[in-house]
């Protein structure tokens, strides 16, 4: 069958060049992915881990088409090891802590992931590509009031000694100059227990191997942006590509919009990937939540 552009040599040449450009771009992406799957030299690994920051400038924030969260999340409880999590959270910047877990040696270290702006006193976590509906939770809001301002964010990364496989074990948010006295499991706003008598900690779900952390008032904006492939998602994807070290990646994108305070979207890989993960709150001597820890259940049998 003849095509419309066969009678016009200029149009045919234009379409041909566009197809060639698309094929070259696809090949470039495959070469990049293959190169990033190969073992990295320590200095290159470090450079990538520090390349997760970007800024997006928007004219105005879009009006979200989803309501400001009327959905009641169904909570799944998952087994977890709080003592092991606390051991990992004691790792300080620049330290490589060795742990024996299930008889196997691991090293654990802390990777800075930049600040998070808490604007409303509430934080949402979960998969931004998981569109909220009456049948899914979207990004549930952690049921804990938080101080307004900048919170630091660190990734706790574990490396298996036997094969140098690295995974993100936890994400910690911390309010500066406040000391954690005790860690406690936290639930989510409006949650409905699917099995109230089961043991373990309440959890949020991840369906794409990555989780986001964002101020609760901006989560509908984030859902909508990811649903439409908007500028925030594009910036996150670009930074994830820059920090990718085969088994994990992260991004922290600051979003600025006229007439609105700037906010951050922090994305990170979760342990072995998809699953349900608990959130812990670190409380100080006044019983205020001054830290959060998303525990990605790394030390469980791999799926």
Task: Based on the model shown, name its key terms.
single chain, alpha+beta, 2 domains, 5-stranded mixed sheet, 15 strands, 36% strand, globular, disordered N terminus
Question: In a nutshell, what does this entry contain?
Answer:
With 303 residues, this protein is of the alpha+beta class. The protein has 5 helices and 15 strands.
Share of helical residues: 10-25%
Element-level helix/strand string: HHEEHEEEEEEEEEHHEEEE
Tell me, briefly, the overall form. Answer: globular
Number of domains: 2
Number of strands: 15
Our estimate of the beta-strand percent is 35-45%
Structural class: alpha+beta
Poorly predicted ranges (pLDDT <50, ≥5 residues)? 1-5, 33-37, 68-73
What is the first-to-last residue Cα distance? 49 Å
Give the biggest beta sheet. 10 strands, mixed
Q: Give me the oligomer status.
A: single chain
Radius of gyration based on Cα positions:
21 Å
Mean pLDDT across the residues is 80
Number of helices: 5
Secondary structure topology:
Elements (H helix, E strand, L loop, with lengths): L8 H29 L4 H8 L3 E6 L15 E5 L3 H8 L7 E5 L2 E15 L4 E4 L22 E12 L5 E9 L7 E5 L5 E2 L7 E6 L3 E6 L3 H10 L2 H13 L6 E8 L2 E10 L5 E9 L5 E7 L8
Parallel strand pairs: 1-12, 2-9
Antiparallel strand pairs: 2-10, 3-4, 4-6, 5-11, 6-7, 7-15, 8-14, 10-14, 11-13, 12-13, 14-15
Task: Describe this structure as you would to a colleague.
This protein is of the alpha+beta class and 303 residues long. The chain has 2 domains: 1-38; 41-295, no CATH class. The protein is built from 5 helices and 15 strands. It has helices at 9-37, 42-49, 82-89, 219-228, 231-243; strands spanning 53-58, 74-78, 97-101, 104-118, 123-126, 149-160, 166-174, 182-186, 192-193, 201-206, 210-215, 250-257, 260-269, 275-283, 289-295. A hairpin with a 5-residue loop joins β14 (275-283) and β15. The relative contact order is 0.21.
